[in-house]
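From the methods appendix. Each design record in this collection lists the tokenized structure first, followed by the designed amino acid sequence. Records were kept in a plain field format so they could be parsed without special tools. The example shown here is representative of the layout used throughout.

RECORD:
FOLD TOKENS (430 positions):
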């Protein structure tokens, strides 16, 4: 090994000893208390002429955008600590320069904290699940199996479950995720002629595993809101607003050849909101069949509070406050057939929607390695895809003159994401 030769930094531990051969990496410098080291070199047999190869992580070829950002953050940490007294570590036997360098891309990819950037995508899918719950309730009101009289109230509750999937992006280095959200929406409404006004609440929990990086996140949520529908001739105007808080616990595991396996943990609070406005207008209403096109505009957003990771031995990150929002439109058509089930009024419906998201790109979450603001980098989450198709079906029946039961399912597909949703609703008018 010649003095002055640039070497790739690697994650290894050991002790200084012996006289070293020319084809081995000899000395390493520890960064903090982590397993991160910067490569150093020496002429054969000369243990005094030591120098540090700096800023090599970010220059590693073939890195994703997130891994490169993580590498640059590590470079900054190494430079910041280079003036301090730190013990020297030997790589150990059997690892050549080429072997060590080959490990670096995987180490940087697995060490990247980019998985936390997917929390915003999960929040978005969760609020859109609440939006689907609103849309399903509006569909039930249009079906009108039991139409409350002037001044009457209706209590309703909907238990739901949603499966979410968002693909990782290898070029970006995003994690992707697969998970589930379970919860309940409930409300009470009152009829004033052609106007129905209600308030609602919701409580739920999301659990998801990151796909391309090892880790998972769980989020508990609580929401409240209000909604209204108004009949204008044969058309129906719909509106609703929902706001709530979130409590997330996330963890990630760093593990790669030459690295000690470690698990980092973080908790974060936050908030979510949703605004829904729409118009549904029947165009065919012959006998028992009704065809109803609809158009909806949806705005949603979230705030993720700051968080501090623990237990990664110097590679912990601090996340900065993140605010996100999206605007979507939905164009759809519903075919509803009136029928009888056990001599009770019922309806069966199919719904097809085209959804366009005007802000479908993955969101960047700013993170600092080891709490050092000079290492801040915006790690990007996965894109969901701008356009989606959703197919849904519902069956609703009046159990008696005051009680309804409704079951609905739907599946949504877009270029980089998918979701399946099921719900069971009960309504009681008094």
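DESIGN:
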């Amino acid at each position: 090994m010649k003095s002055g030769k640039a070497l790739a930094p690697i994650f290894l531990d050991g002790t200084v000893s012996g006289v070293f051969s020319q084809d081995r990496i000899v000395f390493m410098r520890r960064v903090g208390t982590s397993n991160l080291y910067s490569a150093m070199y020496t002429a054969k047999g000369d243990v005094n002429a030591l120098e540090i190869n700096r800023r090599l992580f970010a220059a590693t070829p073939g890195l994703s955008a997130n891994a490169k950002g993580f590498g640059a953050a590590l470079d900054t940490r190494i430079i910041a600590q280079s003036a301090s007294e730190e013990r020297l570590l030997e790589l150990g036997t059997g690892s050549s320069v080429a072997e060590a360098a080959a490990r670096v891309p995987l180490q940087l990819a697995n060490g990247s904290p980019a998985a936390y950037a997917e929390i915003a995508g999960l929040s978005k899918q969760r609020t859109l699940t609440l939006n689907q719950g609103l849309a399903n309730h509006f569909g039930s009101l249009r079906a009108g199996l039991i139409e409350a009289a002037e001044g009457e109230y209706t209590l309703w509750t909907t238990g739901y479950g949603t499966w979410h999937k968002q693909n990782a992006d290898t070029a970006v280095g995003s994690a992707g995720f697969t998970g589930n959200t379970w919860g309940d929406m409930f409300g009470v409404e009152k009829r004033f002629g052609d106007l129905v006004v209600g308030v609602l609440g919701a409580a739920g929990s999301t659990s998801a595993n990151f796909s391309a990086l090892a880790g998972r996140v769980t989020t508990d949520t609580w929401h409240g809101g209000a909604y209204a529908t108004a009949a204008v001739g044969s058309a129906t105007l719909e509106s609703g607003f929902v706001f709530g808080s979130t409590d997330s616990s996330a963890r990630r595991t760093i593990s790669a050849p030459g690295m000690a396996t470690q698990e980092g943990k973080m908790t974060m609070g936050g908030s979510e909101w949703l605004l829904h406005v729409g118009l549904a207008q029947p165009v065919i209403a012959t006998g028992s069949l009704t065809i109803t096109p609809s158009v909806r505009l949806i705005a949603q957003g979230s705030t993720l509070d700051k968080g501090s990771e623990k237990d990664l031995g110097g590679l912990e990150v601090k996340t900065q406050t993140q605010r996100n929002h999206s605007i979507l439109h939905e164009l759809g058509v519903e075919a509803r057939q009136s029928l009888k089930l056990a001599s009770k009024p019922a309806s069966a419906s199919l719904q097809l929607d085209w959804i366009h998201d005007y802000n479908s790109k993955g969101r960047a979450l700013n993170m600092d390695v080891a709490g050092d603001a000079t290492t801040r980098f915006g790690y990007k989450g996965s894109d969901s895809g701008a356009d989606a198709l959703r197919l849904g079906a519902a069956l609703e029946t009046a159990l008696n003159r005051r009680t309804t039961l409704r079951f609905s399912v739907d599946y949504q597909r877009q270029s980089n994401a998918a979701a399946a949703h099921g719900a069971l609703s009960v309504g009681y008018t008094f």
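APPENDIX NOTE: Helices lie at 65-81, 97-111, 119-143.
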